[in-house]
């Protein structure tokens, strides 16, 4: 193969589109039996996107038929399936193929890709495994002994019915705020266990009217302009994510005023008021979460959970809460990039060991790592965003990688790799920029490792990323 792509979510499919267009011989290896990545795996009630769909979609595959401003999860999954079929990518996908080890062989300058369906060899490899794939389970004593169902949002049981049950939801991140209104409408009682309050703002979600959809269908340019307008409205919000900025202060005030207007109960308002800077954790958009918390069958519990018992949870003060079911909206092991995959580079070093020595994952534009020639990552270290669409970043990455592969093929050379000095300079600038952002603030967040090194997020505007990804780094070795 010229190229092997691991994963068939937004990243893998976006890369496959470019590879197909370039006429490369490529395969996509997918561990599951369907495309879709996070949108295949996350099927909890209420799952939807919090980035507007006309922007949270491929630039090469605009969809005039999105049903809502923020499409529900199953609709996004259907869009990805349709895109894979429409662009002839599906026939290049090997499903049920779990990749466990990559080894670069200097003798034949090929990557040896070990998988549950045998060994493949390819000149170049792109990992598109996502950052938010493996669920994080809370380390709560007694969790394994709980008598009722325990469902993580990323591994939901479609057959579960909340009807009349006493439900406990742990977590108040982006998944929880979508899940809680749905469960609360059916449950006998719902207790939301909150460790820290999220910053929230209105989502302003609504259905598109038939005439709007017709207009998008008939006037593709109109749809493109609409997409750009969403992009720029998100991009303009970047200064809110600079720590201590005037925009951050103003936006914090606006969100607190909105909270006051939404919640009648002073106690609930107090519970839902964040005690850390805006943007430090992901800012959440919802029109339905706060009203759900005011339902008579819903309580918010901010006391620490001491342990889980077979019949419920015991709190730090000794109070017990009886529960029939526990929903874990506790997020992902986002700091473990490329989980379950060993990557052995040109000098025999394993990538995770290299990252451990560096104090956390890093990569040039989150794409390339010195010592790992012809290996590229999508949604790698420091490419997540707090203010814009990840699909935009993935398309920048697919474009950069395609260019690199084309350059390798045209040059008749064997390998392309980023220089370690170039990488060091890049990383220094990146971390200096990140130190000025909201995510460096005092909060717990999946954006950073335990050591406070921010390994998830990009440091500045997406326009900045786009520009960097259009130019070659000064020191790129093609040998
Ligand atoms: P998350 O943002 O990591 O939130 C996890 C929540 O669980 C936090 O509130 C956390 O509390 C809490 N938690 C974790 N361990 C706990 C424990 N032992 N006891 C009590 N509480 C605990 O996870 P997520 O909500 O699944 O979202 C992850 C990311 O997925 C999002 O930031 C977003 O990028 C993506 N996502 C996107 C969408 C979308 O609409 N596009 C939807 C869902 C998810 P602390 O905050 O105090 O740590």
Automatic annotation (TrEMBL):
It comes from the Bacteria. Keywords: Monooxygenase, Oxidoreductase. SUPFAM superfamilies: FAD/NAD(P)-binding domain. GO terms for molecular function: monooxygenase activity. The keyword Transcription regulation does not apply. Its EC number is 1.14.13.-. InterPro entries: FAD-bind_Monooxygenase_sf (IPR051209), FAD/NAD-bd_sf (IPR036188). Pfam families: Pyr_redox_3 (PF13738). This is Flavin-containing monooxygenase. The lineage of its organism: Bacteria, Pseudomonadati, Pseudomonadota, Alphaproteobacteria, Hyphomicrobiales.
């Amino acid at each position: 193969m010229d190229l092997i792509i691991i994963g068939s979510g937004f990243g893998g499919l976006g890369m496959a589109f470019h590879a197909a267009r370039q006429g490369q011989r490529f395969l996509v290896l997918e561990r599951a039996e369907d495309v879709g990545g996070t949108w295949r795996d996350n099927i909890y009630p209420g799952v939807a996107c919090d980035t507007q769909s006309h922007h949270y979609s491929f630039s090469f595959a605009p969809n005039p038929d999105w049903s809502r401003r923020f499409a529900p999860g199953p609709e996004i999954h259907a869009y990805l399936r349709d895109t894979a079929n429409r662009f002839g990518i599906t026939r290049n996908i090997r499903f049920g193929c779990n990749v466990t080890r990559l080894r670069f062989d200097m003798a034949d300058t090929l990557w040896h890709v070990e998988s549950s369906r045998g060994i493949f060899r390819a000149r170049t490899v792109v990992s598109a495994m996502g950052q938010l794939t493996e669920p994080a389970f809370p380390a709560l004593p007694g969790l394994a002994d709980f008598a009722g169902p325990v469902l993580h949002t990323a591994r939901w049981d479609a057959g579960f019915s909340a009807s009349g049950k006493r439900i406990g939801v742990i977590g108040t991140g982006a998944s929880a705020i979508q899940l809680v209104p749905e469960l609360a409408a059916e449950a006998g009682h719902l207790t939301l266990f909150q460790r820290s309050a999220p910053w929230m703002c209105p989502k302003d979600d609504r259905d598109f009217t038939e005439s709007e959809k017709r207009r998008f269908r008939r006037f593709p340019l109109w749809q493109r302009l609409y997409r750009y307008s969403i992009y720029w409205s998100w991009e303009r919000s970047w200064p809110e994510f600079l720590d201590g900025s005037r925009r951050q202060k103003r936006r914090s005030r606006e969100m607190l005023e909105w909270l006051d207007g939404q919640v009648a109960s002073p106690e609930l308002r107090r519970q839902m008021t964040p005690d850390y800077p805006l943007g430090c954790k992901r800012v959440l958009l919802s029109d339905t979460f706060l009203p759900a918390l005011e339902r008579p069958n819903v309580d918010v519990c901010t006391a620490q959970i001491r342990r889980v018992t077979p019949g419920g949870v015991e709190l730090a003060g000794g109070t017990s809460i009886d529960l029939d079911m526990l929903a874990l909206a506790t997020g992902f092991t986002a700091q473990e990039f490329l989980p379950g995959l060993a990557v052995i580079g040109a000098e025999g070093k394993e990538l995770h060991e290299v990252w451990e020595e560096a104090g956390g994952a890093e990569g040039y534009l989150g794409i390339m790592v010195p010592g790992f020639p012809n290996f590229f990552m999508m949604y790698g270290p420091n490419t997540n965003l707090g203010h814009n669409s990840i699909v935009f970043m993935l398309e920048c990455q697919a474009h950069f990688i395609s260019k690199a592969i084309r350059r390798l093929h045209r040059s008749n050379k064997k390998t392309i790799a980023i220089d370690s000095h170039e990488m060091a300079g890049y990383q220094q600038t990146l971390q200096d920029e990140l130190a000025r952002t909201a995510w460096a603030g005092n909060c717990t967040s999946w954006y950073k490792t335990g050591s406070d090194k921010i390994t998830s997020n990009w440091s500045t505007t997406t326009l900045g990323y786009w520009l960097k990804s259009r130019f070659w780094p000064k020191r790129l070795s093609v040998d």
